Amino acid sequence: MTDLTGQCLCGAVSYVGKGASRVGACHCTDCRRWTGGAFIGVSFDDGVAIADSPQLNWFESSDWAARGSCRTCGTALFYRLKNDPAHVIVTAGSIDDQDALPAIEEHIFIDSKPNYYEFHDDAPRVTGAEVFARYAPKEE
Fold this sequence. Notes:
24% of the residues are buried. The strands form 2 sheets. Strands 6-7-8-9-4-3-10-11 form an 8-stranded mixed beta sheet. It has one domain (4-135): Beta Complex (Metal Binding Protein, Guanine Nucleotide Exchange Factor, Chain A), CATH 2.170.150.70. The protein is 11% helix and 36% strand. The chain contains 2 helices and 11 strands.
């Protein structure tokens, strides 16, 4: 897949997602508060190049993650884990050519999903406990 560009609503913050993309949905409370619904995030195999902008704001939303948004228009743009800040996930809605995205590969925090919406796809559903077990530091 080719690189995909994206930006916030006002255009003050832009980026290029490089390489093949993967799409996932998060249903946790924090993501739903941040985006107003399920967070549909896109990861890129070769990373995300974010254009330098004073309008980019990073908010430490938990002990393990930070979320990036535009100071001017408020668009939710980026998610990253604090222990891996180079791996940035972008909001699918901020991508310019959304038809170029593949189908959702996985739903996480499915046990936090409220009843008012449903996705009708066959992507695996993973609980919050399973997500934390997947990414927890390994003891030596």
